[in-house]
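re: that complex we talked abt at group meeting.

here r the seqs, copy pasted straight from the sheet so there may be weird spacing, ignore it
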Amino acid sequence: MVKGVINGIPVEVKAGTTILEAAKQVQINIPTLCKHPDLISSAACGLCVVKIKKLNRMLRACTTPLEEGMDVQTHDPEIVETRRTVLELILSNHPNDCLTCGRNNNCELQKLVADFGIREESFEKFVKEIPADDSTGTIVLEPQKCIKCGRCVEVCQDIQNVWALSFLERGVHTRISPAGDIKLAESPCVQCGQCSAHCPTGAIFEKDDTAKVWRAIQDPEKYCVVQIAPAVRVAIGEAFGFPLGTNLTRKLYALLRRLGFEAVFDTNFGADVTIMEEASEFVERFVHKKGTLPLITTCCPSWVDFMEKFHPDMIDHFSSCKSPHEIVGALAKTYFAKEKKIDPSKMVMVSIMPCTSKKYEITRTGEMFASGFQDVDIAITTRELARMIKQAGLDFSHLPEENPDHLLGDYTGAGVIFGATGGVMEAAIRTAYFLITEQKLPKVEFENVRGLKGVKETSVSVDGQEVRIAVAHGLANVEFVLDKIREAKRKKEPVPYHFVEVMACPGGCVGGGGQPYGVTDELRTARARGIYGDDEGSALRCSHENPYVQKLYNEFLGKPLGKKSHHLLHTAYKSRPIYKR
Amino acid sequence: MIKRIFIRDTNSSSADKARDFCNVLRNQLREKQMDEKVQLIRAADMGVYNQGIVMRILPDDLLYGQVEEKDIPRIVSETICGGKRLNDLMCHHAARQCRIVLRNCGVVDPESIEDYIAQDGYQALAKVLEQNDPEKVLAELKTSGLRGRGGAGYPTWLKWNLARNVKESQKYVICNGDEGDPGAYMDRSVLEGDPYSVIEGLTIAGFVTGASKGYFYIRAEYPLAIERIQKAIDQAYACGLLGENILGSTFRFDAEVRLGAGAFVCGEETALIASIEGKRGYPRPRPPYPSTQGLWGKPTVINNVETLANISPIILKSGKWFAGIGTETSKGTKVFAVTGKVKNSGLVEVPMGTSIREIVFDIGGGAGSGKKVKAVQTGGPSGGVIPEDFFNTPVGYENLQKIGSIMGSGGMIVMDESDCMVDIAKFYLRFCVDESCGKCAPCRIGGTQLLNLLEKISDGKGEEAHLAALRRISFAMQKASLCGLGQTAPNPVLSTLNYFEDEYRTHVLEKRCPARKCGRLFRYSIIQEKCKRCGLCVRNCPSDAISGNREKGYVIDEAKCSRCGLCLETCKPNAILRG
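got the structure back, here u go
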C-alpha cells in the first residue's frame, strides 16, 4: 500500500494504482477521453493531466501510479485551462455535427464539452474529408469523427487479436483504417463490434437497420415476428435508468407487441433446441467416438468467422449446430408457419441481439436460408432497440409484464444462461449428463465455468468418466486453448479437453459489441448476475425438460441430429484464410 | 612507410567534391606507382572550416588547405614522393577548440580497427575488463559529471546505475544515432569519423549495466555512417572485441545495426524502442522508464552517440580530468554544428562554459553576409531562439534553459538581420508538425493550429488576438503533450514571441515584415520615373489590381493586390518596387 495526498485529502491505495483510480476513491473524477477500464492506457488525449507538487510538470493521471508521499493537485485554474484548451483543440478537428450523429446525447466528447461549458469554437476548424467505410453491413467507420484515442485499435489488436484496425499515416493525417488502407470487408475484421462499443464518439457505429424494421412492421402484407437474445433483457434497462443487470424479459414481450410485432418469440427457446442438438453431438463424439474431440461451440458468429479466417485447421472440431436465433428463424418459417397456417413468404423475422456480428450471420451461408426463405430477415442490436423504443414514445418502465407467444417462446434456465460466458457449456453439460446417464443432475450449477477469467479450465464427472472442458472469451484468449489442442495432437497425447466453449466478446454476449455503451467488468458482472438470476428463478433448468422443445421434436423434427434437424438446424464451415500471422 | 592522407571538403557537407578530388589524386598516384604506398581516407570532420579541400598528411603531420585539383601534381611529386612541405598550401586554423569527442576524427582511419587501436583505441575497454569492477567505472563516471548529450542532460552514471540495479538476466544497451534536428550532424560525423570509439563506449556500457546485447539505431539517411559502423562491428568481431570472451574475459557482448526509417519522433527513446521492436514509432508514457522496462520489456540504457564517444577518454584519463573541463553543472565539452548565416560553418567542439559569442564570432567568424547577427537557435526544433543580447551566456544545460532555449543535441543556427522571427518560428514548427506522430491530441492538433496562426500572421491576416492564442496553445502543448517532441515543439514560437514580440506586432498591426522575408507582406508599387508605360504588368496581373493608362501611367491598388509578384517578374525596366 502507498499513501499520498490528492487535493489535500489523504489517500491510501495498493501500489501501482494510477492517480486516476486513486482520485476516484476520494470522490474526484478526472476527465479523460482515451482511458477505458478494459484497456491499457494509451495516454493519447492529454485531458487527464494533473500537477504533482515539487515537480514543474503536469503528468497524465491515467498512467502515473500514485507514489508514496505524492502530493497531487487534480483541479486548479491552470490545469482546467490546459484541459479546456486541449478539448477545444480536439473540437477544432471534429465535425461537430452532433445533432445528426448516432452518438448524440451519448457521446463522451459531447459530454465533456458540455461539462467544460465551452460555448464557442476558439480555433479555426479543419476536418479532412475521409469517406466512411460501410463495406461490411455491420459496422460503419467514420474516420472524420475519430479523435484518435486508440481504443478501437487496442481492443481489436490486444483484446480480440484480430488486427483489423490500425492507425494509418501520421501527425495530423493519422486516421483509423484497416492496415493497408483496404475496406473493412476485405480485412480480417470478424465484426464483433467491440470497437464500436468502446469508441467514445460516433466514429465507429453499428449499421443502423431500424428503418428496415419500421418498414416491415408497417407493411400490411407482412407478418412481423421478433425474438430477443438472452443478453438483451439484462442490458436494455441501462438506456432507461433501470438498475444495472435488471431482467426485463416480460416487459420486453409487452413492449415488442406494442411496437407492432404479431408474434413475440424468445431466442432462449432456440438456445434450448441448440442444446438438444449440440449435447447430442457431444454424446456422439464422446461416448460413441464418432467425430473429433474436443467439440467446440459455434453459437458466436464472430468466433466462427475468426476460426474460418485464422484457424481453419480446427473446422473438424466445430459443432455443426446453428446459433439459437438462426434456429428460431428457421423454425418460425417452417414449424410455426405450418401450425399457425401463415404464409412463410410473408413472414419477416427480426432478431434483437447484443451483437453486431449477427447482422453478418443472417446471410452467412446457404444454410441460413434453410426454411426456403432467409430464416432471419433483420438483426438489430440492443442499442438500436433502445432507439426504437424512444421513437415509439413508449414509457418502458411502466409497461405491464406479458408472456411470449407459444411454440417458440417458452424457455428453461439453461436457455437464458447462453448470454454469459460459460453458459452454453453449462447448459450443454446439464443435458449431456441426462443423455448419457438418463438421470437428473443432483446440482445443475457449474460455478467453475462462470465468471470473467479469460480461460476457465475444469472437468466434470459424468457416469464415472471425466469430461475435461475449457471456456474462453475475448478472442485473444482463444489462442491458448487452441495451441494446447494442437500441441497434444502433434505429440499424439490424449486431448486436453473434450468440450470447448468460445465467445468472441469478453464476458460473452452480455459484453457484446451491440450492447449499451460504457461496458466495464463491473457492468458485465451485473448483467451476468441478471442472467443467472433468471436461471435460478426458473422452474425448469435443463433444455430437455422444456415441454415445447419436447413437443417440437415429437410433432415436427423427430429426433435430435435426425434428417429434418440436420436440414433446418445445422450448418457447415469452410476455410477462408485471410493471411498468415 | 605508408603515408595516410585525410581529405575533406570543408566548405560543404556534401561528399561529392571530396570524392572527385580523391579519385583524381588516386589516379595520379597510380601513374607514379605510389598508390600502394599511400592510403586515402575521406574524413568526416577535421575541425577546419571554410578552407576548401583540406588534406592532412600523416606521418608528416602537414595540413594543406584550399587545395585545388591543379595542385595535385605538385603535392604528389614534391610532398608525397619528395617529402617536401609546400608552404603556400599550409593551412593555419584557429585552435580554440578542445577535441575530446572528435579527437579521432580526421586522425584515425575510420575503416581500420588497427589504426584505432594504434591510437589508444580499446585501451579503455581493456582497462575496464581487467579491473572487472563495474562499480569503479560508475564511480569514475560520477566523478566526471558526464551528462547525456542527446539533449535532456540526464547524468550518464545514474542512467547506467538504474539499469544495473534491476535484477534481470537480459538487458540491452542502445546507441541512439537517430539524429534528426535540421542542420545538426554531430552524431553523423562521429559515426562516420570515429565509429570504433562509439562501439567501445557501448561495449563498456554493456559491461557495466550487465547487458549482453547492443543496438545501433541509425537513421537510414546516413548511409556512410551505417556502412562504417557495420564495417567496424565486423572488424571488432574478427578481433575478438565483440562476441564471446572479449579480451579473454568472461564478458560477452553482441552488437547489431538497426535502421531508422526517417521519423524524427523515433529519436525519442520510447518511440525508438517501439521502432526496434517492429511496431509503429509511437512514444509511450514514462514511467516506466526504459532503464527498468525498455526494449521487449527488459532494462535498457539508451545513450546518444556523443555521450558514448566520451566514455573511453574518461576511463583512460580519469573522471577528475573530465570534470576539470566545463562549468559547475555541465562538464566536459560539447560539439555544436554551427550553421546558418555564419562565415565558418561546421562542427566545433568547445568546453562547456564557452560563451555563445565566442562560438559565433571567434570560431564561427560572425555573419558571413556582413550583416548584423541577430540571434542563434539552439536545440533544433525543440529549442529556442537566443537574441544577441544574451550571447555572453556560457553554454551549459541550465544556462541555456534559463534563457528559454535548450542545449539539445547541439544544433546552432546563426541568424542575421535578414531573418524574420515569425518565419523562423514557422520553419521549426512546420518541421514538428510534419514529424508529429499523431498519437496525442495536444501535439497533433495544437501544432497544426499554431502553424495555421503563424501562417496567417506572415500572410498579413494576423490579428492581435492571435498572439494570445499562440501563447495559449503553446502552454497546453507544453503541459499536456505525451512526449518531448510535443512538449518542446512550441519552444521556437514562445522564445521568438518573448524576445521579438515587436516583430510579431509589426506583422499583425502594420502588416509589414521588418526583415522583408514574408512574401505576402511585401508591398508592390510602380516607380513612375522608371515606368515605360508598356502596360505589360496590367496584362499579367491576375487580380486586376493595376489600373491606369499609357497617358497617365499605372498604379497598383494595394487592396486588390494578391502579392504574387508577377508584375515584378515581367517588368522589363525594373519599375516595380517591392518593399
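couple things i noticed - The CA atoms of residues 333 and 372 of chain A lie 8 Å apart. Chain A has three domains: 2-75, 121-206, 211-569.
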